[in-house]
Design goal:
Among the domains are: about 70 residues, no CATH class; about 50 residues, no CATH class. It is about 40% helix and about 15% strand. The chain contains 15 helices and eleven strands. The chain starts with a helix and ends in a 24-residue tail after the last helix.
């Protein structure tokens, strides 16, 4: 399609909607902070759970998603140069890069339980044809469900506000959190832990609110109303002295006795929080070593397969079924994610692995140099799958061509003496 064709068929999700005209301002709208930034719910931001969910979101965003072409055997063959692939690897929209977009997906997925990946700008109207390419896309919150459509709250970069739009389920990738029963159900482990942590914070704020917890024993009994008024006045006098004093010093009568209570209120909230935290760690497949960065390679591998992989599988499958038509899938198009298996391997083990991979002709020398962050070598042999420990003559690389031998004479010529 040429330039004029792309301009004629270009489509934006915020255009031609059945909604009132937006307010036209004479001055440009500006914000002190990013209006499109994803923020956790208020109940999650106050607790330690925000750090746990952010850690998982960062680890998931480390995986790269690509629009690829498969061979006849269903294996990865090449990368497709498309707008969708550019959104997944370079720039999803004018505000978010590819990594930020992936982290936004996971963070919103944890917070909402279900998200919608909405194509904003496409080459062709997806309502009319399935052969469209995505130019920009954003993460939206689903506000209302319908049989064929969903009402999504998504950020509009033109008005710099989040607006609700109705999009079809056919071209919108709807992703559900695979850990929904653990994280998003009303009585799930995560929600129970949030409530317990909020109660514990309330108790801590009450105990550390600046109260002295003093008991004043007066030299007379408080039975009549007059004595009770005198005791109340004495209490106010001591409060006034402590409040007005620079160092918090007050005086009492010699017959009065002051008792200070330094004992905290006893409850089992802390034990419940510790129990729910350990239970949540086990259900999410995460450990304390993963959080502080001291986990071993087997622990990280278990964390990847139990936590990271199900989340990424759900995202990729939703993209594959919504962004690729049946014809494209028949032609070998697919969406895959890639994980770097050498990220946690020490240097002393990486040399041995590189020798085994190149010797068994699994990876070439330049491919191994790319893994360790070195530029490719200029030698043509570095791009070949060959065992460098074998002589070239045995591999048949520089052996001279075999000379043709004359055919054997099976019939003797006439007059030739017998051998």
């Amino acid at each position: 399609m040429n330039v004029f064709g792309r301009l004629a068929h270009a489509w934006n999700v915020f255009f031609n909607l059945d909604k009132p005209e937006p307010y036209q301002s004479t001055t440009a709208t500006a914000y002190g902070s990013r209006p499109d930034r994803t923020r956790h719910r208020f109940t999650s931001e106050k607790t330690i759970l925000s750090s746990i969910l952010t850690r998982i979101a960062i680890d998931v965003s480390d995986l790269v998603i690509k629009h690829v072409k498969l061979d006849d055997q269903g294996r990865y063959d090449s990368e497709v140069n498309s707008g969708l692939n550019e959104c997944l690897n370079l720039e999803a929209n004018i505000d978010q890069g590819a990594r930020h977009f992936r982290q936004d997906m996971v963070s919103t997925l944890f917070d909402e339980g279900v998200i919608a990946l909405v194509p904003i700008d496409t080459t062709v109207n997806p309502r009319l044809s399935g052969s469209f390419d995505i130019k920009t896309m954003r993460v939206g919150r689903i506000m209302q469900w319908a049989p064929d459509t969903v009402r999504v709250l998504v950020y509009n970069e033109q008005t710099m506000m989040k607006e609700e739009v109705t999009v079809s389920k056919r071209y919108t990738a709807i992703v559900e959190n695979p850990l929904y029963a653990v994280m998003n159900e009303p009585n799930s482990t995560l929600q129970r832990l949030i409530r317990k942590l909020n109660l514990l914070d309330a108790v801590d704020e009450q105990s550390s609110s600046g109260k002295l917890d003093l008991i004043i024993q007066l030299p007379y009994t408080i039975k009549s109303e007059t004595r009770r008024q005198q005791a109340e006045q004495r209490r106010k006098d001591i409060e006034f002295q402590l409040k007005g004093s620079q160092y918090g010093i007050a005086y009492t009568d010699g017959t009065e006795k002051v008792v200070q209570l330094n004992r905290p209120s006893e409850n089992n909230l802390l034990k419940q929080v510790e129990y729910l935290t350990e239970l949540l760690y086990s259900q999410l497949g995460i450990t304390k070593e993963v959080m502080d960065g001291t986990a071993t390679q087997p622990v990280m591998l278990n964390y990847f397969h139990r936590t990271i992989k199900p989340i990424m599988d759900a995202i990729v499958e939703a993209m594959r079924r919504s962004f690729l038509t049946k014809t494209a899938r028949t032609q070998g198009h697919s969406i895959m994610y890639f994980y770097d298996p050498f990220a946690l391997i020490p240097v002393e083990q990486l040399a041995e692995i590189a020798d085994k991979f190149t010797r068994n002709e699994i990876l070439s020398s330049n491919e191994m140099r790319q893994i360790v962050g070195r530029p490719p070598a200029k030698d043509k042999k570095a791009d070949q799958l060959r065992n460098s420990n074998m002589p070239e003559s045995e591999l048949g690389l520089n052996s001279p061509p075999a000379q043709k031998q004359p055919p054997l004479q099976l019939v003797k010529a006439a007059g030739e003496p017998p051998s």
